[in-house]
Design brief:
Strand content of chain B: under 5%
Order of helices and strands of chain B: HHHHHH
Radius of gyration of chain C: 20 Å
Mean pLDDT of chain C: 88
Low-confidence stretches of chain C: none
Largest sheet of chain B: none
Helix content of chain B: over 70%
Structural class of chain C: mainly alpha
Helix content of chain C: over 70%
Number of strands of chain C: 0
Shape of chain C: rod-shaped
Number of domains of chain C: 1
Distance between the termini of chain C: 68 Å
Chains: A mainly alpha, B mainly alpha, C mainly alpha
Strand content of chain C: under 5%
Shape of chain B: globular
Structural class of chain B: mainly alpha
Oligomer: heterotrimer
Order of helices and strands of chain C: H
Number of helices of chain C: 1
Radius of gyration of chain B: 20 Å
Mean pLDDT of chain B: 87
Largest interface: B-C, 42 and 31 residues
Number of strands of chain B: 0
Number of helices of chain B: 6
Number of domains of chain B: 1
Low-confidence stretches of chain B: none
């Protein structure tokens, strides 16, 4: 199917661009660490408070980091107008979005996985017993962040004050992701871990709704 | 002059609803007269939902038909909707403080209303940051569509979240225990508020149409 | 009346928001109307 082959070709390009520079991944990880340190200093939680506040703090840090990390996504296509070239190279414009979304999801997921050991250490929680379930939540959450995030990156790259517009557009919209991810993560990290299916349901619903919306409307975002 | 007629209609609406709220409807037993804020607070909330729906419809129509009038309707409905939600967020705490002793709490309804307010504002801010009219119309319409699709997800996720961490609900369900005269007063006031919605959207729509006329004229002048 | 000042504050604030919004829209309409008249006149003069 041409969509799939177009997408995988573009996805390869996105990943290769990142691997060559590696800046996005490292700066994002450092940023999340900074956010966690700042919150921990001002709130100075006790150990039990850490375990209660940890998941929320982590996901808020992920959201902030994502709204920074998603900026270059379409901005870098503006130098040398590579976006026009991309549009010409594919038969289905959705492939451009799909590839960028997939790349962003992977980057976010990778960043979050790299954060897990720090998280376990700083907040005194046990992540290893629930690692598969945690990865599932991280994946669904990252997908939820990346799908509208990529779309809004396309929108804000053409607006004034774009660095502020992307978080402004994205963060209120991501309320369901923040709520559901935090609750499910918190439940997994309790002394008796539990998997909150309702929360996962919300994450899945969000991902499906926005993937569909992007599939239906994505091409308009790429219009000249 | 049409605007004076509009202002007169506005005064009439205020007078009618004030009469219904203060003289027709009886005084509520537990809270006393302060409950009468309800006749301003709740119809505003409902009208803001209607405005949201109109905005969504206009956004869809613009994306598929690309006629400027849909863009005008979209921004008009969004601005007026924002006015209504602001009234909800202002009258709510004024009502809450004497009765329950707090200005605000993060219960389900308040949190949802605040997130909705933020989404409306993001929509309008995005428009102010996009200068080219066609792009502004298209991108804000797309954002509006995404935001509207998000609303049920926000609603369910917040309700689930508060279900996990219950807090006292400071306002009981709106229809609970309404005496007949209260119900009549409420329905009539709600009708009046729908009229207010139409009045305001209509005025704002005309303003937007006029702005388009002006831009057209300015282009004509430049050509000479 | 109990809590009268709160009732008054709420109704004043609420209706003020609607009224101020309407007034701002009307003012902008008048400014635009004048500007349109001005441009129309200058166009018809230069014809």
């Amino acid at each position: 199917m041409s969509l799939l082959s177009n997408t995988s070709a573009l996805l390869g390009k996105e990943l290769r661009t990142e691997v060559r520079s590696r800046e996005l991944l490292t700066t994002t990880v450092v940023f999340i660490l900074i956010v966690i340190v700042l919150f921990s200093i001002t709130l100075h939680p006790t150990t039990s408070e850490s375990q209660r506040l940890g998941p929320g703090l982590l996901w808020v840090a992920f959201l902030f980091a994502a709204s920074l990390m998603l900026q270059p996504c379409f901005l870098r296509e503006q130098t040398n107008d590579t976006l026009s070239a991309l549009r010409l190279s594919v038969s289905d414009p959705f492939a451009i979005f799909f590839a960028k979304m997939a790349a962003n999801t992977l980057f976010l997921l990778l960043t979050e996985l790299l954060m897990l050991p720090f998280f376990a250490g700083f907040f005194n929680v046990r992540v290893l017993p629930v690692l598969p379930q945690l990865v599932l939540v991280l994946f669904l959450g990252s997908l939820g962040i990346a799908v509208p995030g990529t779309a809004f990156s396309a929108i804000s790259s053409q607006a004034r004050m774009r660095e502020l517009m992307l978080p402004l557009l994205l963060l209120p919209l991501l309320t369901p992701i923040l709520i559901a991810s935090t609750e499910v993560t918190a439940a997994l990290l309790e002394p008796e871990p539990a998997l909150r299916l309702a929360g996962l349901g919300i994450l899945v619903a969000f991902d499906v709704v926005f993937l569909t919306a992007l599939w239906l409307f994505g091409e308009y975002l790429l219009e000249e | 002059m049409k605007t004076i007629a509009g202002a007169f209609a506005l005064f009439l609406l205020i007078a009618v609803t004030a009469y219904l709220a203060f003289f027709y409807a009886p005084i509520e037993r537990t809270m006393g007269p302060i409950q009468k804020i309800f006749y301003l607070h709740l119809p505003s909330a409902f009208s803001s939902f209607i405005a949201l729906g109109i905005c969504f419809y206009a956004n869809l129509m613009y994306v598929f038909k690309r006629q400027p009038k849909w863009d005008w309707l979209g921004v008009s409905a969004a601005e007026v909707g924002l006015a209504f939600i602001t009234v909800v967020l202002v009258t709510g705490p004024i009502w809450a403080h004497p009765v329950w002793g707090i200005w605000w709490t993060w219960d389900a309804r308040l949190t949802l209303t605040f997130v909705l307010w933020l989404l409306y504002i993001s929509y309008l801010l995005l428009r102010s940051m996009l200068e080219e009219p066609d792009k502004r119309a298209l991108f804000s319409a797309l954002f509006g569509i995404f935001a509207f699709l998000d609303v049920p997800l926000v609603y369910f996720s917040i309700r689930w979240w508060r279900g996990q961490h219950p807090t006292p609900v400071i306002m009981g369900g709106p229809g609970s225990g309404l005496e007949p005269r209260m119900r009549v007063a409420y329905l009539l006031v709600w009708g009046a508020f729908t009229g207010l919605l139409v009045l305001l959207v209509n005025a704002r729509f005309k303003l937007e149409a006029m702005r388009a006329d002006l831009e057209e004229l300015q282009r004509e002048v430049e050509v000479r | 009346m109990k809590n009268f000042d709160s009732i008054l504050a709420a109704y004043l604030a609420g209706w003020a928001i609607f009224f101020l919004y309407y007034v701002s829209v009307s003012k902008r309409m008048n400014t635009l109307r004048q500007e349109i008249e001005r441009l129309k006149n200058s166009l018809s003069r230069s014809k």
